[in-house]
Prior knowledge:
By secondary structure, this protein is α/β, with parallel strands linked by helices. The chain folds into two domains: 3-21 and 289-381, Aspartate Aminotransferase, domain 1 (Alpha-Beta Complex), CATH 3.90.1150.10; 32-287, Type I PLP-dependent aspartate aminotransferase-like (Major domain) (Aspartate Aminotransferase, domain 2, 3-Layer(aba) Sandwich), CATH 3.40.640. The protein is 41% helix and 14% strand. The protein is built from twelve helices and 13 strands. The chain has helices spanning 3-9, 31-46, 52-70, 83-93, 110-123, 139-145, 168-177, 226-229, 272-288, 290-308, 336-345, 367-392, and strands at 19-20, 77-80, 101-105, 126-130, 150-156, 181-185, 204-208, 220-224, 315-316, 328-332, 348-349, 351-353, 356-360. The strands form three sheets. The protein has a seven-stranded mixed β-sheet with strand order 2-8-7-6-5-3-4, sandwiched between helices. The chain has a four-stranded antiparallel β-sheet with strand order 9-10-13-12, covered by helices on one side. The radius of gyration is 23 Å and the shape is globular. It starts with a helix and ends with a helix. The model has no long low-confidence stretch (mean pLDDT 94).
Amino acid sequence: xxxxxxxxxxxxxxxxxxxxxxxxxxxxxxxxxxxxxxxxxxxxxxxxxxxxxxxxxxxxxxxxxxxxxxxxxxxxxxxxxxxxxxxxxxxxxxxxxxxxxxxxxxxxxxxxxxxxxxxxxxxxxxxxxxxxxxxxxxxxxxxxxxxxxxxxxxxxxxxxxxxxxxxxxxxxxxxxxxxxxxxxxxxxxxxxxxxxxxxxxxxxxxxxxxxxxxxxxxxxxxxxxxxxxxxxxxxxxxxxxxxxxxxxxxxxxxxxxxxxxxxxxxxxxxxxxxxxxxxxxxxxxxxxxxxxxxxxxxxxxxxxxxxxxxxxxxxxxxxxxxxxxxxxxxxxxxxxxxxxxxxxxxxxxxxxxxxxxxxxxxxxxxxxxxxxxxxxxxxxxxxxxxxxxxxxx
Length: 393
């Protein structure tokens, strides 16, 4: 771990007490975020200054930061509350007709399913599930599933339960060839795995920021491509969809034109403390660089794999193929729930997902975290191997 990462690690107080390997569930808060939010709380408690106007510039800085993160233009980025918000922009806003078909993987995270299920019930769309293969998205099955009524593919950048990184470039090419809208849930990848939404031809990309982007809960951003911006029917228009130019002394204007940017769709989101947290977290991510974060994360996972090499007790359930691996690593064993509790007891925080223990490594982790995790895994293996031997003797 180089000096820059070690410096950033000090921003995360939890690293002194626990080994946190659960960023795929939520990202721990850092001291820069706390300091930014505390300063704003002090300002609001004093109630001597109206910081409302500052919020607009802050929000634009945050939008610009997320645009750089994913290879977009600031005008294509909006901010709001969660991943589901951007997904519902797609499910309720895209120009779809009764009977049009939406394709979704049968191993998708529920946020995607319910965003489209609700819209399908109201708009009378057909929701079809693409059968996975070996618990991975099957591109061949996707192509075979396309009919003349298919209009949308909605999929995750990275699968939540095993870290499989979908081939968005190939999926984009297929969507383009069949004139399908391409909608992507980016929450399990953005901030840890590089992505360029424009180059990938994504139409709508939605991403909560409370996981790998290490921002407060209730924060997200979404990207809307130029090709669909004017096709979307907004389902959540607020007065902030128009540009008031901060002229709040003349509010009897009811016919202002809407923004010609993604701001039109972001609703009335001006949660200043969240925006301050988003900005502080973004600075950490951008200072390190996503490519460098990815290299660190993958190297730490490789170190853990090396430590577990030769074990007949654990089975790796995530793909190690360089093209599809991510910063999520999963293993399983016979008594999974007990393993999860054992790790927690030793202050190693992971998650149980779909038959595996999910280990998600991020920028504040280092080699000592991996060494401790390997030691505890080996201890658990020895103890359970002895128990098994005692039962069979």
